[in-house]
Amino acid sequence: MGGLFSKEQKILDDALSHVGEIKNGLPVNAGHFEALVNEYALFLEEQQQILEISDKASVGLLHEQKNKAVQIDGLKSELHQVMENLHNSVKTSQEKKVYVQTFGNFEVFVDGRPLRFARTKTKELFAYLVMRRGARCNNNEIVAAIWENKPDSPTLQSQYRHLVSDLTKTLKSVNAEDVLIKQRGSLAIIPEKLSCDLYDFFTADTDAVSNYMGEFMTQYSWAEFINARLDKM
Q: What does the alpha-carbon distance between residue 81 and residue 75 come to, in Å, rounded to a whole number?
């Protein structure tokens, strides 16, 4: 029986150590936790066998084993909660699968791959919304920005509506349509659903700050005033 008790203690010590690491914010390998939980499941089966033998052999040993079983059950419950939190954390990070590069040329990546836009103006529309960082932009404002030298007209408004439709279709093709908020007469994005070097820059992220080399969305003239602002920061 001594060998089984030693195994039990080792599993308990290992699990408690890793639970402590997660509570203290230390990085923990999710795969290791899955293996650990599986090990508990197998161990509990052995535990039940021990209890049955102990019941026949010694009332004292039975009492000790029951206490151990309660301790393991409690720890399993705690581990389950930790695993659930870890899963939710991973899920949240995976939801931000769209990465937007604004320093230098404007580019969009989904799961590490460039997002292809059927029209250059569709890409510019998205760039403008990213630059506005979640602010609601009315249609006239957007049209004036991306068609700088053209007077407003029904034809231009029709082209704009086609761009909005194309942008929606493009984002939907990569399951990212929830990034866009469409309301009557206006558009916006949800910044929290994107990873973006500009947004990181404004939070003083060291990598974003070091990556800014004095260029911001260089394809678009309307981005120059933001570039000037970044230069002063």
A: 10
Task: Give the helix/strand (H/E) hosting 34.
Answer: helix 30-57
- How far is 131 from 89, CA to CA, in rounded Å? 27
Q: What is the DSSP letter of 105?
A: S
Asked if residue 187 has pLDDT above 90, the reply is: yes
> What SS3 state is found at 43?
helix
pLDDT for 115 = 96
pLDDT tens, 110-147? Answer: 998 999 999 999 999 999 999 999 999 999 999 999 99
Dist. CA 153–CA 157, nearest whole Å:
6
**What's the rounded Cα separation, in Å, for the pair 34 and 10?**
17
Taking 3-state DSSP, the helix, strand and coil percentages for the chain, each rounded to the nearest 5, stand at: 65, 10, 20
Q: Express as a percent the part of the chain with pLDDT over 70.
A: 59
Q: DSSP letter for 216, please.
A: B
Q: Are strands 107-110 and 113-114 parallel, antiparallel or unpaired?
A: antiparallel
CA distance 192 to 134: 9
**38-76 burial code (b ≥16 CB/10 A, e <16):** eebeebeeebeebeeebeeeeeebbeebeebbeebeebb
- pLDDT of 17 higher than 70: no
Q: Which residues pair with 187 in a beta bridge?
A: 137, 182
Number of neighbouring beta carbons within 10 Å of residue 81:
12
Cα 155 to chain centroid, rounded: 40
